[in-house]
Amino acid sequence: MGVIVRAVLIGMLVVIAGTIPRNLIFAANLRYYATVPWAVPLTAVYLWLFWRYLNGGGPPTSTAEERRMSLRANRVSCRVWAWALLAGALGIVALVLALRVANRMVVLPPQQLPDLARVPKLTVLSLLLMAAPVAGIVEEGAFRGYMQGPIERRYGLAVAILITGTMFAVAHLDFTLILWPYYVAVAAIYGTVTYLTESILPAMVLHTSGNIYSNIDLWLHGQAEWQASSGPTALIWTTGADTSFWIWSGTLLIVAAAMAWAYFKLARAAQKWSGQKLTPRAV
């Protein structure tokens, strides 16, 4: 249990250190000179320094190698990159479809933006777009790097996914039982990609892309369509399973099958890449 406790504590500290400064900078931008998205370049500089430190840069030098190894930002081949992005993208699509199906079976909590009517649209959009790479870099470094790595090596991938998924929910201050499977599913998508590739880099790209989509969707509609329930009258337990419900369910099964195939191909490509790295080059 010591491995789990240490990994969770360090991972959560990484999340706090990467997220709180961003939140303070964004809040200041919304309050002072909101017509100019000056928080974007300032956050970018902090994010670069933060990434550099996690990857072994800066003092103390005694922990540099440990930090680099914990982050797991390892290089992968172009073929592994392609399969990782395809598998992860199909996983994200499957998750969105699963939420749409679940939205007809249970009442999911709505996700809404705060009232930003008085803030210029350019500033709101700029901050939402900047929030995506912050989440992708900070959360993948924390959850799939510093937290998942030690737990995965000691207790296996399944245990690591359950723990990181649960802590992912806690970090979002949204740990309701009904959304717990969603956060575990997110951890499974990114965690499996990281496990197979031995690198958080593909998961970072996937996480950032997924957040760009969800943030823009949230901005355009005022709430995330795939989380906001249409109300009790739309639940299949009261209206019955209509054509729309079966279409979404069938599409989910097709995408899930494609996702499983892509993860299988990723595993094969990653195994081959790992073998090539271990094979000495001829002089």
Low-confidence stretches: 228-233
Over all CA atoms, what is the radius of gyration? 20 Å
Mind summarizing the main beta sheet? none
Calculate the terminal CA-CA distance, rounded to whole Å.
47 Å
Beta-strand content bin: under 5%
Q: What is the tally of helical segments?
A: 10
Name the quaternary structure: single chain
What level of helicity do the residues show? over 70%
Order of helices and strands: HHHHHHHHHH
For the secondary structure, the number of strands is: 0
**Helix/sheet category:** mainly alpha
Write down the overall mean pLDDT: 89
Shape label: globular
Provide a compact summary of the structure.
Helices cover 73% and strands 0% of the residues.
Could you walk me through the main structural features you see in this protein, from its secondary elements to its overall organization?
The protein is mostly helical. The protein is 73% helix and 0% strand. The protein is built from ten helices and no strands. The protein has helices spanning 2-31, 39-54, 64-71, 78-102, 121-155, 157-171, 180-197, 201-221, 236-239, 243-278. The longest helix has 36 residues, at 243-278. The chain is globular.
How does the SSE layout of this entry go?
Blueprint: H1 2-31, H2 39-54, H3 64-71, H4 78-102, H5 121-155, H6 157-171, H7 180-197, H8 201-221, H9 236-239, H10 243-278
